[in-house]
Design brief:
Length: about 160
């Protein structure tokens, strides 16, 4: 298959043909120098903590590249509500990053176990938050009843707390 047909989406191949996507991408973008990672690299990923990953926007330390001189800002909670939400957001982010990783590497048992730990922690924190402060997601269980909880709450602009 030539590069032009690959770009156009002409994928007429028989069962014995194969595409090395990294070779094809190197032909299209020669300055990127993409290489297929080896299996050993897939097994030993260096991960940030959920706090650091949330701050940097990437759970995988080997994939993080700082943009120019930008220094990520560490978020600090001002009260218990903020702390609970920030803990939830960090764990949900870590679980989501691992979910994406597992889409490509479904047989990595250690990453699956870590994903389930972060997911359970995020679910627990979301439940704690919603029991104390109200819904934070459209899929929240507190939204199954009418009227919705936020209709009964006093909003900050009305002198209440969120």
């Amino acid at each position: 298959m030539n590069n032009y047909n690959f770009l156009r989406g002409n994928y007429q191949m028989d069962r014995n043909d194969s595409i090395d996507i990294f070779d094809d991408m190197n032909n299209f973008f020669p300055n990127m120098n993409m290489q297929m990672p080896n299996q050993g690299m897939m097994e030993t990923q260096k991960l940030y903590t959920p706090e650091e990953a949330f701050t940097k926007g990437n759970l995988f330390a080997n994939l993080y590249e700082q943009y120019k001189n930008y220094k990520p800002i560490k978020l600090v909670a001002n009260n218990e509500q903020d702390r609970l939400y920030l803990d939830y957001a960090r764990n949900a982010f870590a679980a989501h990053e691992l979910n994406l990783y597992l889409d490509l590497h479904p047989n990595n048992d250690s990453m699956l176990a870590l994903f389930n730990d972060y997911r359970r922690k995020a679910d627990s924190l979301r439940s704690q938050y919603e029991n104390s402060y109200g819904p934070i997601s459209i899929s929240s269980d507190v939204l199954v009843n009418s009227p919705f909880l936020w209709e009964e709450m006093t909003w900050p602009r009305e002198g209440g707390n969120l």
